Structure formats: structure tokens, C-alpha cells
Amino acid sequence: MKSGAHPIFAVVFMMGIAALFGAAVTGVHLATARLVERNTELLYQNALVQVFDLKNGERETNRTNAARLTAARIDSKEVCRDPETGWTFQLIKAYADDSRTRIKAYGFRFRGLGFWAPIEGILALSPDLKRTVGLVILRQTETPGLGGRVAEPVFTRQFAKGLAVEPPLRDGKRLVVSGTAPTPGSMAGAHHVQAITGATQTSMAMDRVLNDYLARFFRAMAAREE
């Protein structure tokens, strides 16, 4: 009798342990899910503040300021569609102040394959859609110190200087990410983005991704006007 009860007890014991640990894991997940969601939202809000320069002279942007600024000056409810590819996106509209009477910039999210994995970010353009206003990288896993510098100011701050995207170059590109400087005075100079030193593949990927999304964006905006 005892020898027959022992295996049953062991099975019940193991099932109990499994249930206990399963409940614990579930509890931890439920407890942290909201925290992860809030942190993700905060990172996105800070990215919007950065790429559209919503601070307007304010030195610091804490959690409360970022939430207030994005709530007051960002509208991303409108959905646009590229008639050629069917790609849809939320058009991000940034306003100059809380009154929402003047558009400061337009923007859109992009996501494309880098050298190792997808790179996600936001590109902002001037109200007339002729120049860049800023770029911020939301997520990337490129090589630290090399391709990973795509998220650092050494690369992103170039877009805040007003790179030309309209009209496009002869080959259809609107931006040229390259380590070779264009000929002084050439039209390409206004579209040139200095590539990341030692990260040729990541730079080439950014050139491809940005131009792909810009082409989609401009077709979608043209259809929106029509």
C-alpha cells in the first residue's frame, strides 16, 4: 500500500510545485505589465519632445512635462495611406504651442532592417515638407560603438539642421547617407547625411530605410491632398 501511494504523492507534489511557480510568474507579469507599459509610453513621449523640440527653450523635461507637452502639442489621430504599397501610418502633427493654431512639423514612424535587426524611429519634417526637422531612434540593436551610434547625436543631430528632402534628386532619393562628401555646391550637398564611421552596413541600411519611407510618405501626402 505504501509503495503504491508514493508515486501518486510525488506526482501531486510536483503538480503543486508547478502550479505555485506558475502562479508566481503570472503574478509578477501582471504586476510589472503596467509598469512596462508606462515606461514605454514615457520613452515615446520623450522621443516626441526631442524630435519636434517641443521644449521651446525649457531646460529639462521630466515625466510630467513630457506628458503635458505631448498631450497639448501632438496629434496623431489622422491615418494616411500610400496608394502604391497600401502602407498606412499615423500622421504625427506637432503644433508650435498649446493653442494648436500653427503646425510646427509633421512626422511619421519608420521601421526597417538594419545590419543585425530592425531599426525603429521617428522622422520629422518641416510644415512645407521640404526639409527635415529632426530624427530620433526608438529601438535598435546594432553593434555598440559602431552601428549603434545611429541613435547618438553624432548621427541624429544632422537631421535637425534642415536637410533637403524636396525636390528629390535625379535618382529619386530624398536623402543620401554616405561617407563621401558631395561636390561643393552640388544639389546633393543639401541632401547629404554623413555616414557613421566604421559602420558602412548600418549606414547603407539607414539610407535604404529612410528613402523607402520618405517615398511612401510623399505619395501618401499627395493622395491626402487629393
Describe this structure in words.
The protein has helices spanning 2-51, 63-73, 153-156, 200-225, and strands at 74-75, 79-81, 88-90, 92-95, 103-113, 118-125, 132-139, 176-178, 192-194. The chain is α+β, with helices and mostly antiparallel strands and 226 residues long. It has 2 domains: 1-73, no CATH class; 76-225, no CATH class. The strands form 3 sheets. The chain has a 5-stranded antiparallel sheet. It is globular and about 85 Å long. The mean pLDDT is 90.
Task: Summarize this entry quickly.
This protein has 226 residues and is α+β, with helices and mostly antiparallel strands. It contains 4 helices and 9 strands, in the order H-H-E-E-E-E-E-E-E-H-E-E-H.
Q: What is the ordering of alpha helices and beta strands?
A: HHEEEEEEEHEEH
Q: In angstroms, what separates the terminal alpha carbons?
A: 84 Å
Number of strands: 9
Task: Give Rg in angstroms.
Answer: 24 Å
In order across it, which strands form the biggest sheet? 1-4-5-6-7
Structural class: alpha+beta
Shape: globular
What's the number of structural domains?
2
> Could you estimate the helical fraction of the residues in percent?
40-55%
Q: In DSSP terms, counting alpha (H) and pi (I) runs of 4 or more, how many helices?
A: 4
Mean pLDDT: 90
Question: Regions with pLDDT < 50 over 5+ consecutive residues?
Answer: none
**Major sheet summary line:** 5 strands, antiparallel
Strand content: 15-25%
